[in-house]
Amino acid sequence: MIVVLKNGAPSQKVDELKARLKARGLDLHESKGADVTILGLIGDTSRIQPEELLANDIVESAQRVKAPYKQASRSFHPADTVIAVLSKSGAAGASIGDGKTCAVMAGPCSVESEAQVVEVAKAVRASGARFLRGGAFKPRTSPYSFQGLGADGLELLKIARKETGLPIVTELMAINQIPLFADVDIIQIGARNMQNFDLLKEVGKLSNPILLKRGLSATVKEFLMSAEYIMASGNENVILCERGIRTFDNYTRNCLDLSIVPYLKKETHLPVIIDPSHACGIRWMVPTLAKAAVAVGADGLIIEVHNNPEKALCDGEQSLTPAQFADLMGVLSQYAAVEGRTL
Amino acid sequence: MIVVLKNGAPSQKVDELKARLKARGLDLHESKGADVTILGLIGDTSRIQPEELLANDIVESAQRVKAPYKQASRSFHPADTVIAVLSKSGAAGASIGDGKTCAVMAGPCSVESEAQVVEVAKAVRASGARFLRGGAFKPRTSPYSFQGLGADGLELLKIARKETGLPIVTELMAINQIPLFADVDIIQIGARNMQNFDLLKEVGKLSNPILLKRGLSATVKEFLMSAEYIMASGNENVILCERGIRTFDNYTRNCLDLSIVPYLKKETHLPVIIDPSHACGIRWMVPTLAKAAVAVGADGLIIEVHNNPEKALCDGEQSLTPAQFADLMGVLSQYAAVEGRTL
Amino acid sequence: MIVVLKNGAPSQKVDELKARLKARGLDLHESKGADVTILGLIGDTSRIQPEELLANDIVESAQRVKAPYKQASRSFHPADTVIAVLSKSGAAGASIGDGKTCAVMAGPCSVESEAQVVEVAKAVRASGARFLRGGAFKPRTSPYSFQGLGADGLELLKIARKETGLPIVTELMAINQIPLFADVDIIQIGARNMQNFDLLKEVGKLSNPILLKRGLSATVKEFLMSAEYIMASGNENVILCERGIRTFDNYTRNCLDLSIVPYLKKETHLPVIIDPSHACGIRWMVPTLAKAAVAVGADGLIIEVHNNPEKALCDGEQSLTPAQFADLMGVLSQYAAVEGRTL
Amino acid sequence: MIVVLKNGAPSQKVDELKARLKARGLDLHESKGADVTILGLIGDTSRIQPEELLANDIVESAQRVKAPYKQASRSFHPADTVIAVLSKSGAAGASIGDGKTCAVMAGPCSVESEAQVVEVAKAVRASGARFLRGGAFKPRTSPYSFQGLGADGLELLKIARKETGLPIVTELMAINQIPLFADVDIIQIGARNMQNFDLLKEVGKLSNPILLKRGLSATVKEFLMSAEYIMASGNENVILCERGIRTFDNYTRNCLDLSIVPYLKKETHLPVIIDPSHACGIRWMVPTLAKAAVAVGADGLIIEVHNNPEKALCDGEQSLTPAQFADLMGVLSQYAAVEGRTL
C-alpha cells in the first residue's frame, strides 16, 4: 500500500502514524520528495483498509498495490481451480473450470411441479446440458409474488436428478435452510445476498461447491472479496457468476458485463460462468448473449428453460422453450469448437 | 395495470390471456384503438408483476398505475406513522416522524470498549442527541477487517444506555442473532441486507422498530417493497434511511440522494431519516450534508461520533469528534427552527 | 401514447386537455375505468414528449406506445440499410450492414506522422482490415493533452489512403471543420458530441456516411434520437457505434454493452458496429471483446492499432501492435464463419 | 504522479522509461521496495495522463497526487473568484461567489413571446431574483420538439432586460452563434456540451462570464477539466452549475448531487450554483431542493418560472408559477439568514 502524506504534516504526527503501522507488523519504506512524503507499506496489508488511514488528517491518499484478497487471487494460487461435480445420485456430472469445456446448466426459474421439472430436466439433458438448475427458495422483490415451493421444491429437484442423473444447482437464501441443502450438488448464493456476510461465512464451512452470483452493483473487487469470505472460512470450491449489472439504462433488465470474464480469468483462478437469462430478461436475446459468453471464454452458462413459459410462475419472459434450447446448444457447440472446447 | 397488446395479436391468444387474468380475480377493461388494444386490469394487482405478462408473446408492454406496495403506501394509510421510542432502560426517548422534531441518533461506527461507548454516549447526549447508535455486528467488505464485538458489543451498548438513558440503535445481520436483540430499542437492517428477504420476514414478526437502510443501488420502489416485506409480516414500525447510493463518480464514497426525502414523504407514511456519515465518508463534509437533510424535511439523522477517530477500528475517516458534533447540533437547531421543528 | 388521468380530475380540465391534444392533430380514444381514465393518443405523437403532459396537474402518467423516432425505426423502414463505401482514392472499399460481412476498421488513435500512419495502414490492410481509422482532431479531457494534428492529420490520412486504397474514418468535432471533411469516406461523431445537436443537424446535410458513437451514458432511445436528428436533416447513411458506457465500476475504462447489438438490430435498420478498444482501454482485453462482438452479430468493428504503442501520443494502452492485430483477424474469421459471414 | 513499476521489470525498459520522463521536463524520485519500484514524478504533470503510462508494459499503476487542473484549482488560486455582473442595460446586477449572497436566477425554460418573458421577468424581479434566465436556443432530445426561437428569442430577452434591469442568462449551443451573444450578460454552456471542447475553447476567448453546467455523467474531475479548458483559453469568469446526474433510478429525472457544492468549494475558487428544476423535473419538489442548496452553501440558484406552466412549450412540468416562486423566495431568505447570507 502506498500512503501519501500531506505537505507540511507535523513530524510528530508522522512519527505516531509510522509507529502505529509498524505495530501492526508492517515494514515501512519512506520516500521524501519536494512536495510530498510517501510511505510504502510492506507486508500483509490485507487487514488494513485504505479508508481507515484517511481518518488521519495528515494522510492525503492511500492506495493498494496488491489486491485485498489472497486465496481468491491468481498470484496466490496460479493454477486454475477445477470443480468436478459427480451427480450425488450417481450417474452424470461435469467439470467446471478445466479450460476444455463450457458446462451448461439449464432448467426452470422456479420448480413448480414434479411433471414440470422432470420434463424440463429430460429435455435439457437430451440437448447436452450438464446440470439441472431450478429454484425452490425464490428471492422476490415483492412479498406478494410466488416465493417458491421451498423444501418441497428441493425434493422435486432430487426426483428430477434421479430420473436424469443431472447434478442440481439451486439457491440457498438463509442460514437456517442449510441442513436441507446437504445433498445439493452446487449451492447458489444469489445476487442480493452477495454481501450477506454471515451467510457467506456459513457456506464457507460446507464442502458443496458454491455458485456465487455478482451483486447488481458490486464492483469486481467486492465480488472477489465475497468469494474470499467463503474461501477464508474453508470452502475453496467457488464458482463466480456474472448475471448483469445495473446501469442508467433499462432496455434490458440488467446489462450483461462480459468484460468481467477475461478480467476474472486473469485475476483469479476460480471458474467464471455467465447467466444470460437474468441479465437481459428477454427470451429472444438469450441465445445471442450465450454465444458471446462462449466467445469471451466463460467456463459455463446457466440458462432458464421452461416447458410453458407463458404460464411460468416466475420469469417466464426470459425462459427458452426446450426446442429453442436445443437449437441454441447446436450453435454454442460451434462457438466452443473455435476455442477448442466442448460443451 | 395497463397492458398493451401487440398489433395483430391472434384473438384466440387474446382470449386465453383475458381468461387467465380473470381467473386471478381481476376485472378487465378493454379498449381497442386503431393500432393497439389496451387492457386495463382492475382490482388487486399487487400479486402480478408486469414482467410476467411479458412472457406472453402478444403483450407489447405492461405498466402499473398503482404502486406495487400497499401497507407502505400513503394512499392506503394517509396519516404519518409516528414511532415513539421510550428507552428500555427507563429514562429518555423520542418520537420519530411526528413532523415537529428531527431526532438525532449519534455514536461510534463500532463499539470498541465500555469506556469508549460510554464516553461517546454521554457526550452526544449532552449535545442533544436522542439516540445512541453503535455497531456490534459489523458488515465488512473484507473478511480480514474487524467484524465487531458481537454479543459483547451489545452488552456494552446496554451499559451506555443505562448510564445515559439514551435508547440504542444497532445493526442485526442474521436471523440467528435475533434473540440477542430482544432488548434493543431500534433494530437496524443494513444496506447490504435490504433485499435479504428471509431476514426481512423475520424482523417483520418482531415488535421492535426497524430502521431499514436503502441498498446501494436500490430504486425507491425496491426500497418500499422491502419495507412492505416487513409490514406484510406484521411489523408496521419501519423507519426508512437513505445512506447514499452508488453512481459513476467516487469523489465521495456514495452519493447522498436527498431528493428521496420529499419523494418518500409524499409516497409513504413511514418516517425517513438520513445518514450523512456513510453517504460521504468524509468527516468535514458531514455537517454540510446534515444541514441539507434538515432542510429537505428529514425526520431524523444518524451521525457517527468517535472520541478518537484516528484510532477508530472502523470508519474513523467519517466520524466527528464530540466537539465537532456539539457545534453541529447548534447549527442544526437553527435549521430545524426555520421549519418550526426542534431537534 | 397512453395518458392516465388522475382520479377525480375536474371534467373541465379534462375537456381542456382533450381540446388541446385534438388541436395538435391527434385523435383520442377515451377509456373510463373505476379508478382511472385513460386517453389513448392516436396519430403522429413524435412531436409530443410525455414529460410536457405531466406539466398538467390532472395527468398521472404518460407513456409512449410507439418509438419517438421514425426514420431510424425498423417499423418505418423494414429492410436493412447497407452502406457501401468505395474508397475516394479509387481502389478498395466495403459494405457495412449487408448481413454477410463484418467490416473491420483499424488504425492508430491519433495520426502522428506520415511514416506512422502509412506503416500502420499497410499492416492492417495486409491483415484484412477494410477501413483505416485515425484521429486528426482529438477530443481530450485535458486542455494540456495532445489535441491532434488537425488539418495536417487529415492530409496524412489521405496519403495513407492513397498508398493502400483503404477508405478513411476520422472524427469531426465542430461545424467549422466540415469543409475539411468533404473528402473523408466516413465521418465519425464522437461519444461526447452525441447530443451536440447543432453538429448533428449539419452533418445531416452532408452525403458522407456518419459513424455515430453512443454517448457514455446515453440510453438506447437517446442514441436513436441522435441518429434521427441526422436522418431528419437528410442524411440516411448513419452507422451506430457502441463504445462502452459508464457504470459504477472502473476495472475497465468503460463497460462494453454488447446487448445493444441484438437490440438495435431489431429496433432499427441501421448498421451497428463495436469499438472494443475505447470500451475497455486495456490492450490484452481487446481481442476477447472483439470475438464477442462478432458473436452478437455486429456489422463491423473499429480497433486501434499502433506500430509503437508505448510511444503513442494518445491511448497507447489500448492499441494492438500490427502483429497482435494480424493474429486477431485470423481468429475473428473463424467466429464470423460460424455465422456465415466473412470479415 | 506516482508510478508503480511491475515486479521484475527489466532494467533496460525501466531506464528507457525514466529517460523519456526526464525528457519531458520532470524530475524523478525513485524508491525501491522489496516487491515494487516506485517512481515519483516531480514537476508539471498536467500534460501527462496516467493512462498513457499504462501503455508501457512495465507499469503496474500510475496515480496523480496533484489535481490535473491548475487554473481552476484552489491551491493555485486560494481566494474565491467573485463574478460581479452589472446588467448591460444599465440598472440592476449582482455578485456571484462573494460568500455573502446567494444569487437567484429565474425565468422560463424557453422564451416564447415578448408578453410571456416580460411578464415573468417582472414577477421574478419583484420576488427578489437577481438574474433573468430564459432559453432561446434549446437542446432537445428529439428533432421534432420545439427548438427555441433562436436569435429572435435573444432579442426578446433583451427587451425583458430593458424593462426590468435584470441581467440575462441564456444558453449558447454552437460556435457560429457566438456573435449573437456579445451582449448577453452570462452565457450558459449546457450539460450536453460540457465536453464540446471546441466550444469551450471559443468561449474561453470571450470576456462574458460562462455558466458551465455539469454533464449528466461527468465526474467532478471532468467537470473541472472542462472549466480548465475555458480558463486556459483566457476566460477566468466561470460559474459551475450542478443540475443533476444520471443514476440507476428514475423517480426524479436526474439525481441532484448536493455533495458537490462543499466539495467544489474546497477544491476550486470558482462559484458554484444549483439548478433544482432540471435536476428533479417535478414542480412540487423544486422548493425543497432549493432550500437544501442554500443549506449546503451554493453561491446561487437557477430556477424555472413560467406564467402558465401547463401551456409551456418546454419543461412546463418543472416550472413554478410566479406565486409559487414568490413564496419560495421568502423561505429561502430565512435559510440564507442562518448562514449570514442574503439572496
Number of helices, counting only DSSP H or I runs of 4 residues or more of chain A: 10
Summed over residues and divided by their number, the pLDDT of chain A gives a mean of 93
Number of β-strand runs of chain A: 14
Taking the sheet with the most strands of chain A, its summary is: 8 strands, parallel, barrel
Tell me the fraction of residues in β-strands of chain A, as a range. 15-25%
Oligomer: homotetramer
Lateral strand order in the biggest sheet of chain A: 7-8-9-10-11-12-13-14
Biggest interface, chains and residues, is: A-B, 53 and 53 residues
Notes on the structure:
The structure is a homotetramer of 343-residue chains. With 343 residues, chain A is of the alpha/beta class. Chain A contains ten helices and 14 strands. Chain A has helices at residues 11-23, 50-54, 114-127, 151-164, 197-203, 220-232, 260-267, 276-280, 286-295, 322-338; strands at 2-5, 27-32, 37-42, 59-63, 83-86, 93-96, 103-107, 131-133, 168-171, 186-189, 210-213, 238-242, 272-274, 300-304. The longest helix of chain A is centred in the C-terminal third of the chain and has 17 residues, at 322-338. In chain A, 61% of the residues are buried. Chains in contact: A-B, A-C, A-D, B-C, B-D, C-D. At the A-B interface, helix 2, helix 5 and helix 6 of A face helix 2, helix 5 and helix 6 of B.
